[in-house]
Specification:
The protein has 215 residues and is of the alpha/beta class. Helix content is 25%, strand content 18%. It has one domain: Rossmann fold (3-Layer(aba) Sandwich), CATH 3.40.50. Helix 1 packs parallel to helix 2. InterPro entries: His_Pase_superF_clade-1 (IPR013078), His_PPase_superfam (IPR029033), PGM_Phosphatase (IPR050275).
């Protein structure tokens, strides 16, 4: 049976001076450092036998995908299944204003961290990403495919692939900016998961999706 690898790439650092949870909001683009991160992951995958590159429709993912596709002469195709997870508090600063955990009006949104009750259920995220992965695996059979998307959908998909509970501590996610989570298949069967951080040298001082420092 042929061996196929599907790489799940997280986008680079995003310009977010308001430090809000931007989620699916349009127009959020990479910082200059984020563009450098994208170039590094493009270099990392330049020698790979990449047959297709697909991306979340959000700008930051599209920008990250471009330098990955370019060395292979490929176009980036948008795939709605790769979009960021939905979140009740999108557009707000967590812990501030209307997004405060101390506000009793918000307590109903935090009742079930296993689902989670404040956003798109983990199982729904896994289902849509796995569907995109399987389509990419079939179309790139015997070669490699790259899907550029977002931290949480990547992380819960990896946990599902490894047979782990989807609920987790967000502080312990192994999914850095422009990281590469690689799903290796033999035929249709998952044979292993690998992880790399080609842009790690640029992490010092970088910020995550809510404006918090990574280091």
């Amino acid at each position: 049976m042929s061996t196929t690898t599907v790489h799940l790439v997280r986008h680079g650092e995003v310009r977010n001076p308001e430090r809000i949870l931007y989620g699916r909001l349009p127009g959020y683009r990479l910082t200059e450092r984020g563009e450098q991160m994208a170039a590094l992951v493009g270099d990392h995958l330049a020698a790979a036998d990449v047959a297709l590159v697909r991306s979340s429709p959000l700008l930051r993912a599209q920008q990250t995908a471009a330098p990955i596709a370019a060395p292979h002469g490929l176009e980036v195709t948008a795939d709605q299944r790769l979009i960021e997870s939905g979140n009740r508090f999108e557009g707000q600063r967590m812990g501030h204003g209307d997004a405060r955990l101390s506000d009793p009006r918000n307590w109903r949104w935090f009742l079930d961290p296993f689902r989670p009750s404040w956003g798109e259920p983990y199982r729904e995220q896994v289902a849509r990403v796995v569907s995109a992965v399987q389509d990419a695996r079939e179309q790139a059979e015997g070669r490699e495919a790259v899907l550029v998307l977002h931290q949480l959908p990547i992380w819960v998909t990896r946990r599902s692939a490894e047979g782990k509970p989807l609920w987790h501590d967000p502080r312990r996610r192994q999914c850095g900016l422009c990281s590469v989570t690689s799903l290796r298949f033999v035929g249709p069967h998952l044979a292993g998961v690998d992880y790399a951080e080609p842009a790690a040298a640029l992490y010092d001082g970088a910020v995550d999706a809510t404006g918090g420092r990574l280091t």
